[in-house]
Structures are given as structure tokens and as C-alpha cells.
Amino acid sequence: MTCRDFEQWLDEGMPEGKAAAARAHAAACVACASMLAAAREIEVLLAGTPASAPPLFTDHVMARVATAGTLRARERDPAPAPSILPWWVRAAYDPAAVLAAATAALVAWRIEELIRLPEALAAGIVPWTGGLARLSALMSPARQISSGAPGADPMVKLALLVAAVTLLAVGSVPLYRWCERIAEGPIHREIVVR
User: Fold this and answer.
1) Which of 12, 15, 21, 167 is most buried, with most CB under 10 Å away?
2) Virtual torsion, Cα 30, 36, 38, 39, nearest 10 deg
């Protein structure tokens, strides 16, 4: 019998079929002899009188079982930990505050350019829309092209401005979410293990 066979014999609960060979090996091997002595001590301890429960053990366990539901509810919905950062730091790294401050700085810095922005947009878009108008006229010859540039009409300028503002608003949502992910960082994200 080898040391590995001896360990397997111990793990199997020391069956009587291999007991003689195991004892002979333990007599020749110091490491296996100490394992056999430890196993016999464990058997003696386990064979002793069973330990009785401490006084009021059942009452304490049943009280904990009764409150386990409320403890689990508190564990599922923990109160948010108070932040150690001052309010002005939390406000400074909030994505909405950063976006508002950047917009205010841009407006204050480039107010003249922003006032002329609708005219500049209209001037840039008018040739393109004029090309579209000519293309649509080519596609439907019954329709006549009106005289004058399409961007000259104030209603067209207003429509272009509304379209530009709408595009800016729609584009700001992904920008806001991106800034929010940066501000939260990997520490605040919830990890779900499935």
C-alpha cells in the first residue's frame, strides 16, 4: 500500500477489507501513522456524548428566523451612503451641471456669433435646399419652381432654426449619457452576476 492508497482508505471511512494493509503501512510510514492517529482521535471525539444545545438556543434561532424577512428587505434596498464630497463638488461633476456651465460659457463668450447663427445656417443650407428643389422639379415637371431662393422666406429660416435646435436636442441625449457614465465611473456601477 502506498501513501496515496492509505489516504484514500482514510477518506473512504477506513473499511475493514483494507484495514490490515493500511495498519501495516502506517507502522512503516511516520506521516501515515500520524494521519491514522488523528483519524482515531476524531472518531473518539465524535463517538462521545453529543453536545447539548445551549440554554434558550431554540428561542434565539426562532427569533432570528422571524426577523430574517425584514433583514433581507433592508439588505435589498439599502439606504444610499452619504457622500463624503461637499455639495459643490458633487454639483460640479454632475453631467447636467457641466453641460449647463459649458453652454453658459459658450453663450457668454460667443454671443455675437450665436446671434448670427440662424443666418449662417440658412446661408449654408440654402444652396443645398435649392439643389433639392431643382431636383424635385426635374422629377415632377408639372410643378414650377417658385422664384427666389428658398432661404429668403422668413418661415423657411424659422423652420431651419427649429430643425437645428431639434437636432441639437436629440444629439445632446447621447452626449449627456456619455458624460454621466464618465462621472459615475466603474465604482458606482452595479455588477450583476448570472
Assistant:
1) 21
2) 160
Give yes or no for a contact between 174 and 163, defined as CB atoms under 8 angstroms apart: no
The span from the CA of 108 to the CA of 194, in Å, is: 50
- Alpha carbon dihedral 133, 134, 140, 144, in 10-degree steps, equals 80
Binned average pLDDT, 10 residues per bin, the chain of 194 residues: 89 87 90 91 83 85 80 58 72 76 80 76 69 57 50 69 78 77 60 48
> Which residue is listed with cell 429668403?
152
Q: Take residue 136 and report the three cell numbers written for it.
A: 424635385
Q: Which amino acid is at 139?
A: M
Residue with cell string 439599502: 78
